[in-house]
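Lay summary. Proteins are chains of building blocks that fold into shapes, and those shapes determine what they do. In this project we predict the shape from the chain. Here is one chain we studied, written as its sequence of building blocks.
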Amino acid sequence: MTLKELEQQYKYKQLIWKTSIRFKPTKWKRFWSWVWYLIAFPWVWLFYNIRDWRTAICILVSFLLWSSSVWIWYVLALCTGWTTDAAKWLLGIGSAVWIWWASPVGSPFILLVTFTAIGIKALFNKIKNREKKSHKKNNAKIEIKNKENAQNSQKCDKKHENKDF
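And here is the predicted shape, written in a compact code that computers can read:
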């Protein structure tokens, strides 16, 4: 399957899922279905979009962005020297921050990384679509000019055919 087909398949499944939620018989079933949809959305999005290398780069960038609070402490410990008391404290602080980010209890780390990656990918897609539209406009203008030139050359040919030399 090509990437475009996978994207179309993903959008189609999301549409089916949303319409099935809308047709639930009671308000409570609809409510809890929407809650489940919103909880499962980032994981489903990751599953369908991780196949694209651009998405993997977006996830890596957002991972580095959100985990930078950990790496700062590690870099400071490296700058002060690994064996000093200050470095040990800095490594302890960095490890504590990393444990908090990695824990499922109080940290929305995975959700933040996923939604940031979704935003970055949407931004890249928007830029790519603008470029495609501008190329289409330029190609359309070139085609129109080529048609006009062809028509003008045909008119000139007809004028010269009528003249006897």
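What the prediction tells us: The chain is about 85% helix and 0% strand.
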